[in-house]
Design a protein that fits this description.
FAD/NAD(P)-binding domain; seven-stranded mixed β-sheet; globular; 477 residues; Enolase-like, domain 1; five-stranded parallel β-sheet; 3 domains; alpha/beta
C-alpha cells in the first residue's frame, strides 16, 4: 500500500523545501521527494542552490575576496602581510562545512514540521480518482506514494553545448568549477552570465588567467546598460578578466593536460586559445527528465518548461509547478516565494507574488543588483521617466571601506513620481536593493525615499541621493 499524503513535492531545492514547510505549517500531511546525493553518496536536501550553486559559490567568493584584500588592499590601511599563501583545501573544506550545515538544517526543519522525506527520483505514474500516484526510485529500491496535490519543483540543470562533453576534469560545469582543488593557470569560461562571472572572478582573484567567451553581442544584456558598461570596465580594467562578446564556438578539444578552444567573432575573426580548465556555463534547462510516466501528458512550451497559469497551476488537475522548471527568471528566491504562494492556494488562501518586484543580484566584486525596469526597457515602452544617479566615490562609508567603484541609479515616472526601477553596482548592492524592493512593493515615489532619513555614514545614503537626484536636488553631487 502506498503512503498517502495531502501534498507531495518533487524536488527539495529552495522552491520545493519551502513549499513543503509552508504546506506543513498549514496543516497538510506532506512528503518531499528528492534524489540529490553529496560527494559522499549521502542524501542531501537543498537542491542545486545549496549543494552546488548559490551557497558554495558565495563561500568561495568570500574566500577569494579576502585573499585579494590581504594581497592588494590591506597595504592602504597600513597593514603589511608577509608570506601570504593560499590553501585551496582549507577553502574547499570551509565551503563544504557551510553546505553541510545548511543542508542538515533543512533536514531538521523537515523533522520539526513532520514532513516525510523520500529519497529517490520522483516519477508521476498517473491519477487514480482524485489521487496522484508518484513512484520513488532509489538505486534498487522502489516505492509508490499517493497525494491529492503534487508540486513540481525539480529545478534546472546545466544546458549542454553541442559536441562538448562535461567530464569535470578538464571540461567543467558549475559543480566541477566549485570543487577545484588547485588554481588553474589558465581558465577558459564559455558564457559570461552570472555563473561565468562569479566563478571566473573567484579563480582570477586566486591567480588564474581567466578568459570569458560570450555568445551574446552585448555584455550583460539583461542589466541596465549603464550598469553593464561600468561592470565591463571594472571587471576588465581593475580585476583582469578577459571578456569577449559575440563569440561563436567552433570546436572544443580536451586532452590529458589541456583544452583547446577555437572560436570566431565578427570583431576579431577566428581565434584559438589553450586552457588548463574550461568551464561551460551557457545557461540552464528545465529538469524534467524522467518526471512523467507514459500517458501522463503535461503541457510544456517549446523550450521544455512546464506551462503554468498565474497561480502556478499546470495543465494537469491538482498539479502545480514552481521555480526553474517553469518559464521566468531562474532565481532561488523567486522559487521560494512561489512555493509559499502555491501551498497557501492549496489551503484556499489568496496570496500574491509581484514578479515585477523580484530583485536580481550578481555577487561579483563589485556586486550588481537591480529591481524593476531598466532605462532601455522604459525607452522601448515609451514611458516618460526621470532618473537620479549617485556615485559611491562620493559616499563616505564606501571610501572608508575602500570600495568606491560604481553607483546607484533610480528611475521614476515623470508624471506620478512612482519608482519604476533601481539599479546598483557597488559594495553590498545585494543588501541595498532590499530597500528598493520594499519601496516598489508599496508603490513608493522617489520623493518617499528622498524624505526618509538614512543613517550617516552608510552605503544606503547612495540610494537616498539617487532619489534626490530624480528631482535634481541631490545634496552631495
Amino acid at each position: 500500500m502506498p503512503q498517502n499524503f495531502d501534498v507531495l513535492v518533487i524536488g527539495a531545492g529552495p522552491g520545493g523545501y519551502v513549499a513543503a514547510i509552508r504546506a506543513a505549517q498549514l496543516g497538510f500531511k506532506v512528503a518531499c521527494v528528492d534524489e540529490f546525493k553529496n560527494p559522499a553518496g549521502q542524501p542531501s536536501l537543498g537542491g542545486t542552490c545549496l549543494n552546488v550553486g548559490c551557497i558554495p559559490s558565495k563561500a568561495l567568493l568570500e574566500s577569494s575576496e579576502n585573499f585579494a584584500r590581504a594581497a592588494h588592499g590591506f597595504a592602504a590601511h597600513g597593514i603589511a602581510v608577509d608570506g601570504l599563501r593560499f590553501d585551496a583545501g582549507q577553502m574547499q573544506a570551509r565551503k563544504n562545512e557551510i553546505v553541510t550545515k545548511l543542508t542538515q538544517g533543512i533536514a531538521f526543519l523537515f523533522k520539526k514540521n513532520k514532513i516525510t522525506s523520500l529519497h529517490g527520483h520522483g516519477r508521476m505514474l498517473g491519477r487514480e480518482g482524485e489521487v496522484w500516484q508518484v513512484e520513488v526510485n532509489c538505486d534498487e529500491a522502489r516505492e509508490v506514494a499517493a497525494a491529492r496535490h503534487v508540486i513540481l519543483a525539480t529545478g534546472s540543470k546545466p544546458r549542454m553545448l553541442p559536441g562538448v562533453e562535461i567530464d569535470n576534469v578538464r571540461v567543467l560545469d558549475n559543480a566541477g568549477a566549485l570543487a577545484l582543488d588547485a588554481v588553474p593557470a589558465r581558465l577558459g569560461v564559455i558564457g559570461a552570465g552570472v555563473i561565468g562571472l562569479e566563478l571566473g572572478s573567484v579563480w582570477r582573484r586566486l591567480g588564474a588567467e581567466v578568459t570569458l567567451l560570450e555568445a551574446m553581442p552585448a555584455f550583460l544584456p539583461a542589466a541596465d546598460q549603464a550598469v553593464a558598461r561600468e561592470a565591463l570596465r571594472l571587471f576588465t580594467r581593475d580585476h583582469g578578466l578577459k571578456i569577449q562578446t559575440g563569440v561563436e564556438i567552433q570546436s572544443v578539444k580536451a586532452g590529458q593536460e589541456e583544452v583547446i578552444v577555437h572560436w570566431k567573432s565578427a570583431k576579431d575573426g577566428e581565434q584559438t586559445a589553450t586552457f588548463d580548465k574550461l568551464l561551460v556555463c551557457v545557461g540552464r534547462a528545465p529538469n524534467v527528465e524522467g518526471l512523467l510516466a507514459d500517458g501522463v501528458a503535461l503541457q510544456r512550451d517549446e523550450r521544455g518548461f512546464v506551462v503554468v497559469d498565474e497561480t502556478g497551476r499546470t495543465s494537469l488537475p491538482d498539479v502545480w509547478a514552481i521555480g526553474d522548471v517553469t518559464p521566468g527568471p531562474m532565481l532561488a528566491h523567486r522559487a521560494s516565494e512561489e512555493g509559499v504562494a502555491v501551498a497557501e492556494r492549496i489551503a484556499g488562501q489568496k496570496p500574491h507574488v509581484d514578479f515585477s518586484c523580484i530583485p536580481w543580484v550578481m555577487y561579483t566584486s563589485p556586486e550588481i543588483a537591480w529591481v524593476g525596469k531598466t532605462e532601455q526597457q522604459l525607452q522601448a515602452e515609451g514611458v516618460d521617466y526621470k532618473k537620479g544617479q549617485f556615485p559611491f566615490a562620493a559616499n563616505g562609508r564606501a571610501l572608508a571601506l575602500g570600495e568606491s567603484a560604481g553607483f546607484v541609479k533610480m528611475l521614476a515616472c515623470a508624471k506620478t513620481d512612482r519608482i519604476l526601477g533601481v539599479h546598483a553596482i557597488g559594495p553590498m548592492a545585494s543588501e541595498l536593493i532590499a530597500e528598493a524592493v520594499v519601496a516598489m512593493e508599496f508603490k513608493a515615489s522617489s520623493e518617499d525615499i528622498a524624505r526618509i532619513v538614512h543613517a550617516h555614514p552608510s552605503l544606503s545614503e547612495a540610494l537616498h541621493e539617487a532619489a534626490l537626484g530624480c528631482d535634481k536636488r541631490g545634496l552631495h553631487s
